[in-house]
Write a structure and sequence with these properties.
- 38% of the residues are buried.
- The protein is built from 10 helices and 10 strands.
- The longest helix is centred in the last third of the chain and has 16 residues, at 197-212.
- The radius of gyration is 19 Å and the shape is globular.
- A hairpin with a 4-residue loop joins strand 8 and strand 9.
- The chain has helices at 21-26, 37-46, 73-82, 84-90, 117-129, 132-141, 158-163, 197-212, 245-256, 260-272; strands spanning 12-15, 51-54, 60-68, 93-101, 107-114, 145-155, 183-191, 220-230, 235-242, 273-283.
- By secondary structure, the protein is an alpha+beta fold.
Length: 290
């Protein structure tokens, strides 16, 4: 069920994976999956076990969760802040946050985006593993960490991101209004089993989100959409930035109800999801996404 790692040096082949990631990126949005028989046939023809070639790897996210001891949150963040320049020089940090509400507290979440896929991640990890300063930070900060978790996600096809006016992982955090109130909303959907579960869901989402983004607070934006590759499969995550904080989030939700296409999309998405979680996090001072 897990895709093969993609290489930027040579075309890669994906056979029988849950989404055929490279193939999805080559298809127009209407061919991802829809509720019409013609497009369902198109999807079936493209996910029937054939292999697809891709000259470039799909961008991936690594989402790391560090469960901290309550007494260790402040010292851990202080150490991470002090070494933040080193972290950014070694790995492509996007979002570094602490939870506000919606789940477990005292979790430092690190989100990294590797445009070159698993190959780039492996290369950068080798470099960081050879840094004496980085190894010292890891050793010194470990006393504050109770447990760790790492998950790999693939960025949604460009058509999905474009529908939501999202810059995706390539976004460097620029061109937004800085605010101490900013929060990020992490929306997780656990879908049922099946090769077509994620593409069907993403197609419904992309058809509806293009109307949602026209009816929301001006400081609300879709940061990215991703789906799981390693760990719990068939999980889709939306990450929304609310520049006006939880008040802006509430305003955006209220405004989005005025878009009937988005309401219809939500109803359809609800039938495809077995579980839904919503967490609000706050970026720390050195987070690339702020």
């Amino acid at each position: 069920m897990i895709f093969s790692a993609l290489s930027s040096a040579a075309p890669a082949r994906l056979c029988g994976g849950p989404l055929q990631a490279a193939a999805l990126r080559q298809l127009p949005r209407s061919s991802l999956a829809v509720n019409h028989s013609k497009n369902q046939a198109t999807l079936a023809a493209n996910t029937s076990g054939r292999c697809f070639s891709s000259a470039a790897p799909a961008g991936i996210y690594e989402y790391r969760h560090y469960q901290l001891y309550p007494s260790g949150v402040n010292p851990y963040i202080a150490m991470a802040t002090e070494s933040s320049d080193l972290r950014k020089s070694l790995v492509p940090l996007r979002l570094f946050s602490l939870p506000e509400t919606g789940g477990d507290l005292n979790i430092a979440s690190h989100l990294y985006y590797y445009e070159g896929g698993m190959e780039e991640r492996d290369a950068k990890r080798k470099v960081s593993g050879g840094s004496d300063r980085w190894k010292k930070f890891v050793a010194d900060s470990r006393v504050h960490v109770h447990a760790q978790k790492s998950l790999i996600y693939t960025e949604a096809p460009s058509s999905v991101l474009q529908a939501g006016d999202s810059k995706g992982g390539a976004w460097d955090g620029s061109a937004v209004t800085s605010s101490p109130d900013v929060v990020y909303e992490i929306r997780k959907y656990q879908l049922g089993l099946g090769y077509d579960a994620v593409p069907l869901f993403l197609d419904v989402f992309s058809e509806g989100v293009q109307y949602k983004v026209k009816c929301q607070d001006p400081e609300t934006q879709l940061a990215t959409v991703m789906y799981s590759e390693v760990g719990r499969l068939n999980e889709v995550i939306e990450i929304w930035r609310h520049g006006n904080g939880v008040a802006g989030m509430a305003k955006s939700r209220e405004m989005a109800r005025e878009a009937p296409q988005w309401r219809d999309a939500i109803k359809d998405m609800a039938t495809k999801a077995e579980k839904f979680d919503n967490v609000i996090v706050k970026p720390v001072s050195f987070s690339t996404w702020k």
